[in-house]
Amino acid sequence: MSLTTSAYSETTTDKVNALSLRCLKTGELDPLPAVSKVQINSTTETGATVSAAVASEGASAGTVRGFVWNTTGGDPNTDPVTEVPAGAGLGEFSNTLTGLDRNLVYHIWAYAVNGGGTKVFGEVETFKPCPPAITRFHVAGTNGAPADKSIAY
Question: In the chain, what's the furthest Cα-to-Cα distance?
Fold first, then answer.
């Protein structure tokens, strides 16, 4: 018995000595959607307004987009996340997150899912909800204030 160096068997009855044959499709791989990093536009004590953009849909049109967030910072593909859909298509999109705990740190990603079902995440952004500034008015001579003035904390 001798081994053959061809990529296929010379005869249909000689299956024992045949080498496997793979057919590879030539051409380009489908480009993935391109999604930006989330921008934290504003925060409140229990919420945040966020935005991002889908720059391209890749090879399969019909992009669904939105945000996912968690408090662990773990991989959004495998760790539990809260998902907030934000429409479809190209361009900028935004949403207001509510019901957040001001004592926790949040990790948020923008995502895009093209018509072929491929989900892509942008870079992670981390934030902590914080209350708006507090303005205090100090009266001259009260509690050591040297002059009347307003101070934002």
Answer: 108
